[in-house]
Amino acid sequence: MYVAVKGGETAIANAHRLLADRRRGDRSLPAISIDQIVAQLGLAVDRVMAEASLYDRELAALAVRQARGDMIEAIFILRAYRTTLPRFGLSVPIDTGRMKIERRVSATYKDLPGGQLLGATFDYTHRLLDPSLLADEPVADPVRKQADESAMMRVSDILADEGLIEADGRLPEDHVPGDLTREPLEFPLDRDLRLQALARGDEGFLLALAYSTQRGYARTHPFVGEVRIGDVEVELDMPELGFAVSLGRIQVTECQMVNQFKGSANNPPQFTRGYGLVFGQSERKAMAMSLVDRALRAEEFGEDIVAPAQDEEFVISHSDNVQATGFVEHLKLPHYVDFQAELDLVRRMRAEYDAKSDGNDVREAAE
After folding, report:
1. Which of 126, 154, 291, 301 sits CB 3.0–4.6 Å from 210 for a disulfide?
2. Which residues make Cβ contacts (< 8 Å) with residue 92, sequence separation at least 6?
């Protein structure tokens, strides 16, 4: 029997007050500002923007602060806010070939046109705690270097000149890009929708799937063709003017993964591509995305689908951390009626089991 809980609203209000108190923390310390979060926790801000599908550093920092640093909660908050925003138009595809590059590395060519730009990276750090960061003062003079604004040839272009990599993806002229934020997904997906889902998918989930492809749970032999991070111009198509208008620049991370392919009846031996593009500086996410993108193209290349990372429905349906959080955390909400029904069923089953066991004991004693 369900018994109504009284005083629920008061308890919830008190929980909100306690949360606000915990969020503020020790009053003897200054409150962390939004500007501090943007400037000093930039990678956290970038992840929230990417997985919430909303490019706004200030709002992403606000969500991080409001969520007390819980990244998925912050993503949830910002994505919920995104649903309230009007849509004024569609931007034209960004041109990452003209990116104002801050970081650009390739694992396939040492000396490539334009050179390698290491940028700010953890790749060469020792992953040891740095006690000097306990102090507020900087440990060294900052390095100031302007990003490279010249267009740089992609590694994939070098391979394409020799005909050794598949052609860059092209959609039919009459193809209308899908929008998973406005339309329910129907499998199988076109690659544009699939990439949308991966771009806002959970970084940890995609990273695990990408790792699985390298451990033998899919047919891939990947090389990082190129990872580039920088600013790209966003332009809004204005039909009444007949041309696109620049809205400004955003920072993105792009990864092109080069994968070995032995060929098939329809395709010659060549390299194939996996692609990743996300907001901000998020190269781990972009790399994982590109590995999973290639794994999900298995059917396109006539490969057997034998691994989770190759199963489109499995990957896309479970990659969204907001949906996953909703399903998992709803278990904390009251399920009193359901549990009482389950409890009654288990009691009846247990009584039948005990009765049957007692009968068997009697027969064995008689024998």
Report:
1. 291
2. 235, 236, 237, 244
Domain-located, residue 260 = yes
Count of structural domains, the chain? 2
- In a 3-state reduction of DSSP, which class is residue 120? coil
Is 109 a member of any domain? yes
Full-model pTM: 0.90
Both tokens of 24, joined, read 């503020």
List, edge to edge, every strand of the sheet that includes 270-279. 100-105, 222-238, 243-261, 270-279
Q: Which domain holds residue 19?
A: 8-82
Regarding whether 233 and 111 lie in a shared domain, the answer is yes
What is the number of residues in the chain? 367
Taking the C-alpha atoms of residue 292 and residue 286, their distance in angstroms, rounded to an integer, is: 10
Both 65 and 155 in one domain: the answer is no
CB atoms within 10 A of CB 30: 8
Do 76 and 100 have their domain in common?
Answer: no
Tell me the one-letter amino acid at 159.
L
Q: Mean pLDDT over all residues of the chain? A: 90
Nearest to 87 by CA among 173, 181, 176, 174: 181
Nearest to 295 by CA among 255, 259, 253: 259
Residues 158, 299: one domain?
yes
Whether 62 maps to a domain, the answer reads: yes
Instruction: Give me the average pLDDT of each 10-residue run along the chain (367 residues).
Output: 57 93 95 97 98 98 98 97 91 92 94 90 92 76 66 88 86 84 92 96 98 90 94 92 92 95 81 96 97 95 93 97 94 92 96 86 68
